[in-house]
Amino acid sequence: MNSKQEQIKKFCRERNWDQFHNPKDILLGIVEEVGEFRNLAKWEQDPQVIRKVFLEKKAEVEDGIGDMFWFLSLLANSYDIDIDQAAQVVIDENERRFPLDQTKDRHTNINLGGYDGHH
Amino acid sequence: MNSKQEQIKKFCRERNWDQFHNPKDILLGIVEEVGEFRNLAKWEQDPQVIRKVFLEKKAEVEDGIGDMFWFLSLLANSYDIDIDQAAQVVIDENERRFPLDQTKDRHTNINLGGYDGHH
Amino acid sequence: MNSKQEQIKKFCRERNWDQFHNPKDILLGIVEEVGEFRNLAKWEQDPQVIRKVFLEKKAEVEDGIGDMFWFLSLLANSYDIDIDQAAQVVIDENERRFPLDQTKDRHTNINLGGYDGHH
Amino acid sequence: MNSKQEQIKKFCRERNWDQFHNPKDILLGIVEEVGEFRNLAKWEQDPQVIRKVFLEKKAEVEDGIGDMFWFLSLLANSYDIDIDQAAQVVIDENERRFPLDQTKDRHTNINLGGYDGHH
Fold it and tell me: Which of residues 32-61 of D touch C (CB under 8 A)?
């Protein structure tokens, strides 16, 4: 298991916090983090300007990413799921689903002419 | 860097997908995963029943966790953020914010009598 | 058209704000509102206690609901959709999908024995 | 009260569904709708192309807006909140917060030079 996921597991076990880790609360915690990120980008349409502000607020962005990993670990730990293994399953699936020769320089939004091997 | 984050970076670089990775799209991707989880738990009020259905659908839960880690890696890779380091910052902060003697067997919702050292 | 949706349309037209109303930004605005609600309920497992705190914070809940309606109006106004008509379509569909004799006192989570005429 | 909100109240009362309307479930329902919208826009960076696809899928967009209004009504009805009144409170606040002479042709993202009277 990823050592950060393991540390988060230990932190929660020491506090006996599993009793509070209803998946609904964890999922809404992830949603709250997404909402906080929104304030950096909102209403700006130029991707380069958005990029600039995210780089200027890098500590804040890092903190939000850390918080999301925290919530993801709570969710995974609730069901004895190893995040690294879960990521590997997705990586393998995406290798099949988005072959390099079909998806180089091409997005995957099938509503807009993209390629997705699932469809 | 976590080796899964690294693999995802390589996958996207090969496809030249950075051009599509506007943070708004990545964040909405995470939201979509949360929405998919919702169907497992919705309207059920008994945490034990929710737990049971998540364990019965463990492969689906693992897949959703892997997808969220994927999106989190896209976000982190956009700004050269190491997820493991970001997680460590949060772990260290939470050690200070939620001291063991104040938070054992106690939640952190300050609206409902919980403890949060930030407030 | 609902008069509140109409007022919001006028407010935005006067400011020439349509240029900013990319649906991604509007959707993330809704997500941010959900995230703010989360703090009232998080980690609490007893629905009666959650109910009590929402009633105690009724002005805050009302404000969040108003904000969500605002964002929903921005989205609807972008594509000349009438929210009242859209709601009627869903009400009619739900009358067919959840007949009274199948769904009285019964939830609609098909993972947990509920009824949903779509499945 | 808005007549659609009233109809949704009646629909739920007939089915005795209030027992299921924990705000966490309602909020995650809204999140699910946002996630569904995401598939129309994802990875596309040109606002005009996004607009085109939303107009082409107008029935789907209308359905999603109706579903969000449904969930918003469930939330409001749980605490006897009138959505129209809640919207009016926000409209009045936004008149004060975003005066026309400061916000015409100008967004409200204070991270990017916008104006927001709250800050």
Answer: 34, 37-38, 40-41, 47, 50-51, 54-55, 58, 61
